[in-house]
Amino acid sequence: MPTQNNAFLQFNYVPYPLWERKQPNWLQAFTRPLLDRFYPTQNTQLQHITRASVADYLVRFQLIPSLTPSEIGTTLEDSNLPVETVEPTLTPEAYLGTVRLPAQWEKLETILLAFPVNFPPLWHLHAQMIAAIVTECAPTVHVPHVAWAHGIALFLQTHYPTLPIEKVRFLQLPTNDIWIRDYGPFVGHRPDGGRAVIKMTYDPLDNYPQERDDAMAGAWARHHSLPMKQLPFHGEGGNVWTDGEGTLIMTAQAFLQNPHLNRPSLESVLREGFSFEKLILIPRLRFEETGHVDLLTKLINRDSILITEPNATFTADRQRAATGLLASETNARGERYQLIPLPNPPFYVNWFGFPIRRSYTNALTVNGKVLVPTYQATTDDRALRIYEEAFPNHLITPIDCSIGANGGGAVHCLTKEVAL
Questions:
Q1: Total structural domains in the chain?
Q2: Average pLDDT across the chain, whole number
Q3: 264 and 352 belong to one structural domain
Q4: What is the pLDDT of residue 31?
Q5: For the segment 317-334, what is each residue's pLDDT rounded down to a tens digit?
Q6: Which residue from 5, 40, 325, 416 puts its CA 20 to 30 A from 116's CA?
Q7: Nearest Cα to 257, choosing from 290, 301, 211?
Q8: CA gap 12, 403 in Å, rounded
Q9: Is the pLDDT at 2 greater than 50, yes or no?
């Protein structure tokens, strides 16, 4: 049953690396001991991670309560799970051309996830996604240290006994945070039929370290022997939708992050990496930190769009403007869009400083399934019924994102698809 808290001000778990936030030394001296009580901050020190420390972690946070500490430790020490190691400073071959960015409904090879080792309450969220994805394609789970892969595999096998762990690929490639949609590689198709990676500069969080996240796409590309082009553009994957047939949809967040660009120069920069015919720009939401298009819309196919109802607190006018703009627009083929509204769970503020907008458009299409975020909200059932009608040939799989939403995103933000 839904357990939605409708309070405007809430005090929920915050899945941000708050211990890494840049702040004056005097303030850090006050906050660090407090954060150490609630976050496993020592896990940022990669050189201290061992299978034994991972076992202690699993016990401390009761992630596998069905096993004794001794059983967990023995199982991890005996594990022979294969884990690939990626050198994070690898430089890929330079790519000089453009790519066609595939639509999400094209055949996918893998889904990338950055496992939330520092956020124990999110382990079950990621396990839900991995269990749903693995029946459709092989998920790739990124971990900061090899030892974590053994602990995660045990966690998955314990909570999902039938999950084929041999189909889950583990890649050691440290990142700063879990929102891989935004800093992960754009893998597209070259004119010659091969694939290449397009990369944007990832640096939206002034108060947090982002160097590992920004370097991730390049190291990933080199590890997979794919060439890469770096765009002279600051942006994130959550602000790009494509139909794979010539249309890109973004929000005006692109101008806030690249104030030197106007509409023509924005299109020119994007055309340095992506082959497309039409760019549609819609307003970004107010009181929402990312400004991303995937919190407002989701493409069903090239001429059908799920869009959040224009009735949200403080930003209904921008939602109406976005809806009106898309209703009057066409895709690159000249086809008008069919817009299908989705409900809005109520807006709230977490811990005085984090505005939280939960969105059902933040979903992932992966071959024969659609992973739809739910929030233990009274609007969940209606949203799932709309998805079932919009995707009649897909299995609609709810994913409980009630905790993850406090980090500013849900399923789509936490995943990145790689098409064949």
A1: 2
A2: 95
A3: yes
A4: 87
A5: 999 999 999 999 999 999
A6: 5
A7: 290
A8: 8
A9: no
**Please, which residues have CB within 8 angstroms of residue 281's CB and are 6 or more apart in sequence?**
249, 250, 251, 252, 254, 263
Q: Is residue 11 part of a domain?
A: no
112/73 same-domain check? no
Q: Are 64 and 73 in contact (CB under 8 A)?
A: no
Q: What is the pLDDT of residues 270-279, one digit of tens each?
A: 999 999 999 9
> What pLDDT does residue 35 have?
87
- How many angstroms separate the CA atoms of 393 and 390, rounded? 9
**Which residues, in sequence order, are CB contacts of 219 under 8 Å at separation 6+?**
86, 87, 88, 89, 90, 173
List the structure tokens of 37. 């009580």
Residue 31 structural domain: 24-78
Instruction: Give the containing element (helix H, strand E) for 326.
Output: helix 316-328
Type of residue at 12: N
The whole-angstrom separation of Cα 201 and Cα 185 is: 11
Nearest C-alpha neighbor of 239 from the set 176, 289, 302 = 289
In the predicted model, what is the mean pLDDT of residues 294-298? 97
Residues 48 and 131 in one domain: no
DSSP tag of 336? B
pLDDT at 59 over 80: yes
Q: What is the mean pLDDT of residues 51-55?
A: 94
Whether the CB-CB separation of 290 and 408 falls below 8 Å is answered with yes
